[in-house]
Predict the structure.
Amino acid sequence: MSVGLASAVMADDFIKECKIGNPGPTSDKVCSCMSDKVKGSDRADVIEAMNKTNTAMAKGAAADPATMTPKVMKGIETAMTVQVQCM
């Protein structure tokens, strides 16, 4: 049961972070599509990458690669690739 709950929370975090970074009338469609495509061990890294990017953008800056692990950098790459596929 806790695995299912953890998956549901992760899905909500993914959609939440995605919508912050993809505002607008198509955010539901794009973020649902992205959520469907990002699975497994990459998902947590993509969520963290979106969170770091969203936090930096809220401060008017770009995300600082020096503060990110290689997994998070890969998460940014994955998010960007999947976003293009879902637009």
Q: What stands out?
A: Residues 39 and 46 are 10 Å apart (CA to CA). The chain has a mean pLDDT of 87. The two ends are 34 Å apart (CA to CA).
